[in-house]
Amino acid sequence: MDQLLLNPGFPLLSTLIFLPLAGVIPLLIVKNDSFSRYWTLAVTTVVAVLSLLLITGFDKTTVKFQFAEYHSWVQSLNIQYVVGVDGISILLVILTTLIMPLCVLASWSYIKTRIPTFMICLLIMETAMLGVFVALDFVLFYILWEAMLIPMYLLIGIWGGPRKIYASVKFFLYTLAGSILMLVGIIWLYMANHYSFFIPDMMWVDYSFNHQILLFLAFFLAFAIKVPMFPFHTWLPAAHVEAPTAGSVILASILLKMGTYGFLRFALPITPAATVYLMPYVLWLSIAGIIYGGFTALAQQDMKKLIAYSSVGHMGFVTLGIFVLNIQGMEGSILQMINHGVTTGALFLCVGMIYERTHSRELSSATGVGKFMPVYVTFLAFFSLSSFGFPGTNSFVGEFLILAGAFKTNILFKHNIALGLAAIPGAVLAAAYMLRMLQKIVWGGTANPDQSWLTDLNIREIATLAPFLFFVFWIGLGPQPFINLMHSSVVNLLDQFHAHQGHALAAAELILR
Amino acid sequence: MTRDFLLLLPLGIVGAGAILLMLRSALGKLTLEAASLVSMCVFALAFIAQILSGTIGHVSPYGSVFNGMLMVTDFTRVAGLIILACGFFTSMSSQSYFKENGFATVEYYSLIAFAVSGMLLLTMSQELITAFISLEIMSLSIYILVGFNRTCVTCAEAVLKYLMLGAFTGAFFTMGTALIYGGLNSTKFSAISTAIAAHGFLHLPALVGGAFFIIVAFLFKVAAFPFHAWVVDVYDGASVPVTGFMATALKTAVFAIFANFLMLDPGLKSAWVNYLFYIAILTMFGGNLIAIGQNTLKRMLAASGIVHTGYLLIALVAVSADHFTGSVILYYLAAYAVSTLGIFAALSYLTGNGEMRSQFDDFKGLAKKRPYSAAAITVFLLSMAGIPPTAGFMGKLYIISSAIQAGQVTLAVLGIVSSILSMWYYLRLIINMYFHEPEETFETECSVFGPVCTLILAVAVFAISLYPVTI
Asked: What is the ipTM of this complex?
């Protein structure tokens, strides 16, 4: 309990979580298309504005969970309703709340059938996603984590592309299979912690090494599938390609972050010794993901697939940053989680806007669009530059920090620069595939196919993309406010980690050397 | 004395209601609607009486009169509540079902009440002959209910299979009883328990043999591997509400007596744990394999019922015989009953005349024509699959926790793997309802009862998940 900074006044976090859910009720009653659009936009905007109160009230100096609420829920099993944010989760909460209204805007004319149902799915998604980032009770966390699958499954399955059924079932079964072993881990922890599901109490307990390894693997599978780490990524291209634009944006910007958030929140604090022991494998898997994602993206003709595979690469950078286990890498990772959410989300929106006009995602059918849609390609160019980490954009800061962390890592690697060097080609590949896409879309021939009938972006679409561009440059030019928010929590995480890894480290070095 | 009366009052109400309905039907003055209302009232009254009779600990009502043949505990009380609720909702959804299918008579409702009274007695019995009698009261009523539609060939097949195999089961049970009586000179559970405590289970050959036959009979009734083969055909042949009733109430009653019998003594349980371990695994995976291959909704649900029996067997393996409360089993039974009854309630008005919509493909596009029904069915399916935040998830959480607590981590993991497999066939129906275009209008001429029943149960799925009552 002393890890919580209880919030005595207005229950802000609960309001954020349950407001979207309450917003579902009018949609069940009024079955009107334009009402449901405006209503959902209003609800998500209110949530976004309210979430900014989190930033103003956030205490950057403490490492406790703030805005915490604590209520008992199921007494017989000792399940509580506990929520709270710290420096690691606050940025993800804000990212979620800010992206949702933009998803509604992006679906304004893209979704043409069963609009109220679509909006209901979006609102339930928002509740579940926010809940996952702030839940501090394992049952609450698990419930929301799994509950997320169903609206996402419906989003892909109802409003998706031609292979929607294959993609949605693959997404559902893959993620379910991953997270279900986590449940066994959770219950084991519950038994080991005097029958309590309270997450902060489970951290830094020094479970025995063998138990830590098993726990780590149970959690790792769930999170690695969600991230997705190579070789657990095969559901991602299918789901991304078939999902409607808003679904792709939610998947890329928020759902993927839950895996990396899980590593930071659970794997590191609960199983520090196992983390150190298994760290080299995870790092090389990350490198494999970076390189593999880059090469595969280079070969794609479908723009959505291209961006989906680029996600595999970018998320490889994020896991790399987390598992180098130093301050640069970790802060870079958290920042890169936000960056990837902004940049890739925006790129998916861009592809969706082309798709709405040409009904094709093929790179070849979008050649030479630049001549007729100047505003559009301006946005696209900036997001592409951001995607491969051009200096001055947001991803540069994140990737730079992560690479710095990779070169600096000295746990088990003893200042070996192989790791950092191995990640460099990923950055080059990113430039290659992004520039290839950009070159075709902006400067490709305009005759085949004929693009002259295309209209440029309208005000709504510009309003959808502009906030993303704003963050691309804000994080790119002045990242300090964002890093300040997370700094104390990350420092505390690392301090605690180094205090608890000692014994395991010695054992691990003995085995590895 | 008043308390003893109160404890047996629900059984009395249901028995009296059954006889009353049977007599009225002989006089021919009761319409079908009225009969369903009467039976709903009977179950509701009995349910309230059962709640009011609150007990703590073990009470043997009219112990001197019945010579300790009956025992009411918190476990049997809650099992009785589940059974009565099953009876209530079955009567409710039957009302809608028989708006479209015309083969019912008033006796139908009377037989449901008879079956329920047998089940209530079964949960309370602490003596083998009583258990046998109540088992037969229940089974005979259900045989008739399964074959109620006399013009239908699959019903005739179902009732014949069920009757033949059920008769074998009865014979097994009596054989076991005879062996135990031969060895111990008593058929009372308390005598068995004392004998095991005095000599040890494995030193009493008559008891070992008798327990074997009796447990086989129970395994048959709950459709556990390898006694599961009948269930798919029988569930398929019975009419929708009856199938729902069999899948829930019968399973609750038999699991109650099964648990009561197995928990008589730690010696008995530990002798069976290893076998039940393998039976549970085979039941789960065998059921899944059968369910994956089905194209008919009812057959799929029947096979998924086998899988759920497997989960319940995990709970049975994991419970401790020393302080047996059975709350895990009861919670899972309640969660399973709510979702299964719910889906059968929805089917009872959606299948239409002569159950013309029975295949997976017949439900294509339901979500567009009847969004609320489709949403309710989705909720029930997700609950059966154990996806949060439904009751089925909480049930699974309880079972897995108790398995891990009992050191049965293998069972816990296999149970979870099995629940992933089961997603495959539950998702199939959701895919058909949501991701396809409708091919028909799904118009039904049902009464308001079926949809209301479905709605109540859909709310209950969330209610008992988010606010599980402490038993």
From this structure: 0.80
